[in-house]
Amino acid sequence: MKILFLLFPLILLLVQGAAGDEYTCRRMRGFCFRRQCPRGVATVGRCGRGIPCCKM
């Protein structure tokens, strides 16, 4: 039971890392933008925490 307290932070770190990254965005030919994607550009994923990946 004590091992659950050690595994819980590790699982949270893995889930946070799986959210997306800049490299994956670039592979999809997108770009990272600070807030919301500009008009005429679609959101296709996440570059990081609260940073959308945009694609024309």
UniProtKB/TrEMBL annotation:
Identification of the protein by name: Beta-defensin-like domain-containing protein
Keyword Transmembrane helix attached: no
Signal peptide: 1-20
Annotated ranges, domain Beta-defensin-like: 21-55
Keyword tRNA processing applies: no
GO CC, one annotated term: extracellular region
Pfam annotation, one family: Defensin_beta
GO BP annotations listed: defense response
Gene3D superfamilies referenced in this protein's UniProt entry, alphabetically: Antimicrobial Peptide, Beta-defensin 2, Chain A (3.10.360.10)
InterPro entries assigned: Defensin_beta-like (IPR001855)
Record's keyword terms, sorted: Signal
SUPFAM superfamilies hit by this protein: Defensin-like (SSF57392)
